[in-house]
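Quick one: structure for this chain?
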Amino acid sequence: MKDGNAIEVHDLTKSFKVYFDKGHTMKEKILFRRRRSYEERKVLNGISFEVKKGEAIGLIGHNGCGKSTTLKLLTRIMYPDGGTIEMKGRISSLIELGAGFHPDMSGRENIYINAAIFGLTKSEIDRRLDGIIEFSELEEFIDNPVRTYSSGMYMRLAFSVAINVDADILLIDEILAVGDAAFQAKCFNKLREIKERGTTIVIVSHSLSQIEQICERSYWIDNGRIRKMGRPARVHPEYMDYMGEMERTHNEKMKKLQQAQEEDYSEETAEQKKTAVEITGVRLKDGQGTEKTVIKCGEKIDLVIDYKVNAEKIEETLLGLLFCRNDGVVCYGTNTQRERMDNLKLNRQGTIICHIDKMNFIAGEYWIDVAIRKLDMLPYVYLKEAVRFKIYSDVDEVGVARIEHSWKIN
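Got it. Here's what it folds into:
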């Protein structure tokens, strides 16, 4: 191992057998042998990377790309088919919530069991016990069986043990997604503290903001290989663009499938369904004209709405927009009257573009309802969830929208 490195991974490969339908009893195995057919699925296909002592790195990628498998190989929960892993120092891991906890034992007893698994002696655990319990904030419940704990309490106890074993290497898999906001902030502060003490940290997370706050480097894993590595601020935007393109491709396939199903209707039925005004397409585009469904907070975006007028004459019209979070919370609503556009002069067919200088919703999933209506509020057409999109951010924020502001200290 090179001087200054804590982890070295060379040409790691791992495959799994995925059974189509596996018999479990002896009778099923004899009578239904075809059920035991399977395919070999390669999850990792030559992963290599190095982590220096005291460095924090993040592993990112879509579901099934091999992030968690890589972390499990580092913890030796499983072993690779090929390649080598070298690690220097005591290892502590948070791979699965409550892994190693005995449900019928108390929180206190499970502290002793878990800490012993990490390599601490009883006397070492005795010295650290009060600190572990205090950090978990479970003093009132520490002697209750852990089967009575909520998932958040499980996480508090597991995290408290893992960070108090003086590990040289800490491995974390999505564990920080559990718990309330106050405890998550406490965990982040603790991670920064142990990182400053020289602990090497590897984090697997779908929360890019978590990685950006803690890690110096990100490794983007795609189809079992490292597609890109570098500073999070450089890797993450490219990764989010890729994920947005994947989602757009998926949505286009679903749209074509839906259109194919709708073609089964007769022309007469289609004619009956026509309204005076139709919205024929809604999409979001960036400054280069690229369609996007994954947007960075604060990015400039155009909302493009295609329409068609079926009636010979229509009354005075407005266009309205309603921005909603995916839990149904209304975030913002507006219409063209706000811009003194009291009457849209619609052509027989055309496009309406709404320029959004800064899409300032914070990280989350959203949709936009679009309506074209008469001035007396009666709608020609109301398109629910006309377009869905995701917002990601490189800063830690809460709420619904970002408020533009600045600070001054005298």
